Structure formats: C-alpha cells, structure tokens
Amino acid sequence: MTAGGERGRTAMRAAAKKNGAIRARLLTFLALLITAFATATPAARAATSTDTQAAYLAAQLRTDPVYVTDQLPREIPQSTAPDFAKLAQRTGVPTYVLVLPAQATTGVGLLDAVHDRLGKDGLYVLIDESTVTEAKAYGVQAPAEDAATVAFYELPYDAGPLRSFERFADAIAQGAQKAATRAETAREKYGEGDEPADLYIGPSDRENQSTLTGAAITGVPLLMLLLVPYVRRWWRRRPGAAPRKQAKGRSKSSGVWILAALALATAVAITLTAPLVFDQTRSSASPPPRAIDLNARLDRVAKGLAEDPVYADPESPRVLDTAQMAQLHSRIEKFSSSKGGGPVFVALVPQIYEDESQGDEDAFAAAVRDKLGGKDGVYIVADPLDGYIDVFNHGLGLDTYSAFFDLPESISYGDSKSDEADDHLLGERLDDLMVILDKTARTDEPTTPGDPYPVTDPIAEDELRPLFYGEFWSGLFLGVLAALLFFGLAAAVLGIVRRLLRRRNPEPLPTSALPQVSPAAPSLSYLRETATTEIRAMTTAFGTGETADARSLDRYEATMVLVDEASAAGGSGEDLDVLPAAALVVIIVLARATRAALADDDTTRCCGVNPLHGPAKSSRHVRVSTEGNRRKMLPLCDRCLNNTAPNDYPALLLTLPGPDDESERTPYYQDDLLSAAPEGYTKLVRKVRESTLAH
Predict the structure, then answer these.
(1) What is the DSSP letter of 451?
(2) Share of the chain above pLDDT 90, in %
(3) Whole-Å CA distances, 399 to 45, 378, 410, 413, 540
C-alpha cells in the first residue's frame, strides 16, 4: 500500500469519526428539544402517564376481571385473586376489581381511564393495601358510593382489603335503598372520628398479654394466701364482732390446706384459661404469602431488564417520556462502552413496605441481580411513586464509596421542585446521575455493597409469639410484687376502717388498765359512754347465749333489766340519759362481770373502793372517809391492795354525781342499789332483781 493511499484511508477514518460525533451531537440536541417541549406541556404528559397505566391495567382486566398486583405480597398475595373473584360474584353485576398500591392509584380518573380503555360496562372497584378506595358503576345499577361508605365506616383500619371488599359486595347485593340506609347509619355512628375496635393486636399487645398472664398466675394465688387469712382475722377482731365459734371436727391447719389447694387450683385455672381468652395468633388480616407470590415481581422485573436496561413498572404512572427514555438509553450505552464501565440496570419500580423486599432498595437490587444470574453492573432503583433514587455497584471497578455514598440530595431524594412535579423530575435527575457515573473514578479491583441487611420473614412476620414466652417470665416476678403491693394497700385500708369502726364502736378498756384509768368522780357523760361501750361488748360476746352458763346468764339478764328500764322510760340501749348514775355504774360492773364469766373467769367480786376498778384480788380493812378512823372491810383490786397508802383510799373512793348538780357528790355505797357491789356479783344481781320487783 502506498503512502498516499494510507494517508487517504486515515483521512477517511478521521472524517467518519468527525461525522459520527456531529450526528451524536445532533441527536442529543433533538432529544433535549423534545424533552423541553414535553416539560412545557405537563398536562399532556400527565395524560400520557395515566393512559399508559390505564392501558396496561385494562389489558389485564380483559384477561381476568380481577387483577391483584404482585407488589404487595406481604399484605395481599396474588394467590388471593380467586377469593376476590368469588366475592365479586355476590354483587350481581359484572364487576372489575383492581388491587393496587395506594400511591399508584392517586391519579385522578384512573377508573374512568381504565373503563374507557376496556370498553365494558360494569362495576369498577379500586382497592389498595387496606380497603376499598373507590368504586364506580358504568352502565349498571349498583350503589357503588354507598357500598364504599359502608366498607369504610363499618370496619376498623386493620380489617384488611379482602374483608373490606366482602363488606362492599354485601352492601351492593342489598340494593340501593338498604345500602343508602346502611351508609347513613355508619356515618352517624362512626363519622365523628370514632371507628370500630381493632380486630387484631400487635407484638406489643401480645407482650402485654404475656406479662398480664404471668402476673396473674403468681399474683392472684399469692394474694389469696396473704389476703384471705388477714381479712378473716380482721373480720373476727373488728370492733363489735361476735366471738368466733370453732366448728366441731375442723382444725385450723385444715383451713390452711384448703386455702393452699384453692390457690393452686386458681393458678392452674388461669394457666389453662389464658390461651382461650388471648387466642389471637396473627397481628394482621393478611394471609401468609407463598413463594410464587414473593418472587412474582422480581421475576417480572428481571425479565424486563434482561431485554432492556431500563424497566418501567407498567402498574405505576409513567415518569419518563419517550425523549427521556431515549436519553437514558444513550447515557447507559455510553457508560457501558467506556473504559472501566459496564452494564447499567435501571428499575423504575415502587419500593413499598408491603412488597417482598419490605421497601428495602438494597435488598430489592440484590434480589433482581440474583434473578439475572448474578450479573455484574450498576443497579439503579428509582421509585416512580416517591421519587427516591438509590444506586448499587455490583462487581464493577468503580470508586462507588466516594461517588454513590455522597450523592447530592437533589438526586437521591429530590428537592421542593421535584416534590411538586408528578414525575418527580426523575428524567432530569437520572440524567444528572449518569453524568456523575461517567465521572466516577475507576479502580483496579471491583467493588460491591456487600450483603443487604436481611428483611423480616414475610411468612412469619404477622405471627404472634406464643403467650407463654418472652415477657411472660418477667410477668411471673411482677405478679409477686403486685400481690405484695396490693396486700399492703389492702392492709392499710383495713387499718383505716378499723380506726373508724373503733371511733363509732369503741372497745372496752382492758381489765388490767381499769384501776389506773377509772376516775373516782366520774361525770354522767363518762358513765353513759362507758356503759354504752360495755353493753355492746357484752351483747357481742354473749351472742345467742348458746355457750353461756348459769352464772353469765344471770349477770347478763340483770344487766339487760336495767337497759330495759331505760327503754321503758323513753331511752334505749344506745341512749341511757334517763338512768341515774348508780344504775349506770351497775350496768358497767355487771356487763364486765358477764364477759368475764363467758371467758371462764371465776372472779366473784369487784373492787370495793371503786367498783369501776374491775375485779377484786383480796379483802382488807380500809378507811373510806377522811373524818375519824372508821374502817370497812372491802374487796380490793390489785392497785388498791398493793400500791395505795392507807391515807389515800378516801381519795380513790367512787363518788356519784347528784341528779341535779354534778358537783354534789356522794359515796357510791350510800346508794341502795350499789350498796351490794362490795358483797359480790351474785348479791348485786339479786339486788337488781329486787329493785325491779319493788318498782
């Protein structure tokens, strides 16, 4: 080959290369013009977006009148389509059902567009991941709006889409009039922000149930063991309580064993009953998805990317027009053929929490790559509903740590301008991303983002943990603490009640304290209050008199004779104002003597210095007056016998207030009735009966 020929061929290559560059610039310029024109007519682009989505959905309904998306397998698996179809037959009219993600159905007039594309009359129903969201009747008689209202108001939020559609279909089948009435009733009942109770519980609710069950198993039996004996003792010892009568053939230990057996039976009953009360097993109405449900969308996306590096979800509104799609393909081809470049896969697919990847873009990209046979490349996940963009490098020699991890937020998340746009300006943002990708530094070693964070198991995520698990064990300990706390509160309350009862029904003073606290010159009010207290204590101890012997019975009857005199004179056992001081002292002395006899105390006399001192221990000659040396042989209580000087007895002698003037006091033994007190209880009883007969 000559030198001239070689120079000619070199010139021809240079010219061809130059012409190719000029053609590339012209194509880029034309694409930019088309993009600018499309951006300048957003209404037209929106219409194209809706038409594309509607055309796809209409094509699906032409094959099957019920279409369930593959993007919500965690909430509505595609395998539930036959269930929706069976419910649709209840309406009695041709029914077309679309189950789609909520964000994918926000476009105005989607059902109208689908109906226009399909060209068939019938009832069109739009359902998202929770409920019936829209329904329209075309050419048929069906109360679509009222039925949708019924499904919305009558069911709680967690009822699930299948149950919501069931309620909708039943309302349609009832006819227009009944559906309208039912809708109005539901609006009135739940239209103020209220709604029916939830049908399902969450994991935290199950933890609360486990804690409550554990606390009940230990707390209730323990509280029985602590509180029942305490309350029984409190009841028996309460002020004014009747004396306890021991049942024949029944020991105290037998009662303890019976209570322990009841507590154990209670614990067993709670253990067996709790699973029947807390019988929930799932936290959601969604059925467990099958493997085919979880792989349906991944297979669809992988198949599309195997044929074209850009896959746009046909169920979602279109976000890239023809010019933007061509521009993106050009950018991808340029990067693929560049030094150190490689394949780029763009998936314009929604990332939803209910999808197979639980809305995790990293997990979705890795799963799609596996479906593509582990093919290396840059995987771009762009959400057409939210507008978010994520980039993952699998196996290419790119410095992705500095390039992808520090992407501008305007590309990754968008800005206020992209938020307002229906297409989230994904075309422009993807173009900016490809520019960054072109400029990314190349590396000798391939990089990878590593294994994605594992997502929740979609089959087991709605299964509630067993009741006897987790917080159940801590509940056992909390039950013990709760039982002790409740017992303490109950004891405090019963203590307060005891004090109140004592104020209303004061207990008589202990016998041992009488010599020290009994006054020598009591007032009438003191004698009335003390007599009232002693009468109550005596009648409580006496009860029905079944255990009373002849001695206690005589003393009791003599006391009640004086009480009856008060009643006959216009008073009562609670109002002794009509009785004189001497009668009140006799009542006090005999009431105490009755209780002593009931307690098997064989004391027969009271203190002769002051009968209010209680029972006598022995007799002695004592001075009873400060005048002269006159002495009397009197029975004495322990204090008067051992701790009293001879000259102190006159000061301890009981004196009675006068009926008209309490300051005029007389020694008690000058009263005819009380004169028999030092001679013993028997003679005092006889004196009371004699005085009664005399009257």
Answers:
(1) S
(2) 69
(3) 37, 12, 21, 22, 97
pLDDT at 694: 63
3-state secondary structure of 241: coil
- For residues 310 and 275, is the Cβ–Cβ distance under 8 A? no
Mean residue pLDDT across the chain:
87
Contact 535, 563 (CB under 8 A): yes
Q: HEC profile for 141-202? A: CCCHHHHHHHHHHHCCHHHCHHHHHHHHHHHHHHCHHHHHHHHHHHHHHHCCCCCCCCCCCC
Q: What is the pLDDT of residues 362-410, one digit of tens each?
A: 999 999 999 999 999 999 999 999 999 999 999 999 987 766 777 889 9
Distances from the Cα of 214 to the Cα of 179, 218, 281, 668, angstroms: 47, 7, 18, 69
* Among 245-254, 358-367, 474-483, 496-505, the least confident range: 245-254
Distance CA 675, CA 686 (A): 12
- Backbone phi and psi for residue 592, each to the nearest 5 degrees, phi listed first: -65, -40
pLDDT number for residue 692: 79
**Residues paired with 345 in a beta bridge:** 379
CA gap 310, 374 in Å, rounded: 17
pLDDT digits (tens, 9 = 90+) for 233-264: 888 776 655 545 444 455 556 778 999 999 99
CA dihedral 429, 430, 431, 436 (to 10 degrees): 90
Query: Which residues, in sequence order, are CB contacts of 375 under 8 Å at separation 6+?
Result: 343, 369
Model confidence pLDDT, tens digit, residues 320-341:
999 999 999 999 999 999 998 9
Give the containing element (helix H, strand E) for 262: helix 252-277
Q: What is the pLDDT of residues 89-143, one digit of tens each?
A: 999 999 999 999 998 887 668 999 999 999 999 999 999 999 999 999 999 999 9
Q: Please name the amino acid found at residue 198.
A: D
Helix (H, G, I), strand (E, B) or coil at 671: coil
Q: Which of 18-22, 67-71, 197-201 has the lowest mean pLDDT?
A: 18-22
Angle among Cα 277, 278, 283 to the nearest 5 degrees reads 145
Q: Which pairs from 133-141 meet CB under 8 Å and 24+ separation?
A: 133/102, 133/105, 134/105, 134/110, 135/168, 136/111, 136/112, 137/93, 140/93, 140/94, 141/93, 141/176
Helix 322-337 and helix 426-439: axis angle, to 10°? 10
> Is 33 a residue whose pLDDT tops 70?
no
132-138 and 122-127: which strand pairing?
Answer: antiparallel
What are the tokens at 694? 């005399």
Nearest to 167 by CA among 137, 127, 194: 127
Predicted local distance difference test score (pLDDT) of residue 624: 80
CB 505 within 8 Å of CB 240:
yes
Residue 409's identity, in one-letter code, is: E
Euclidean distance between CA atoms 171 and 418, whole angstroms: 42
Q: What angle do CA 104, 109, 112 make, to 5 degrees?
A: 115
Q: Where are the alpha helices (DSSP H) in 505-626?
A: 514-517, 524-542, 550-568, 581-598
Give the HSE-up count for residue 155: Cα atoms under 13 Å, Cβ half-sphere: 24
Distant-in-sequence, close-in-space partners of 274: CB < 8 Å, separation ≥ 6 = 209, 213, 216, 217, 467
Structure tokens at 135: 């329904």
In 3D space, the residue among 606, 581, 605 whose CA is nearest the CA of residue 666 turns out to be 581
Alpha-carbon distance of 116 to 136, in angstroms, equals 13
Distance CA 655, CA 522 (A): 8
- pLDDT band of residue 662 (cuts 50, 70, 90) is confident
- Say how many Å lie between the first and final Cα of the chain, rounded: 168
For residue 573, pLDDT beyond 70? no
Per-residue model confidence (pLDDT) at position 575: 62
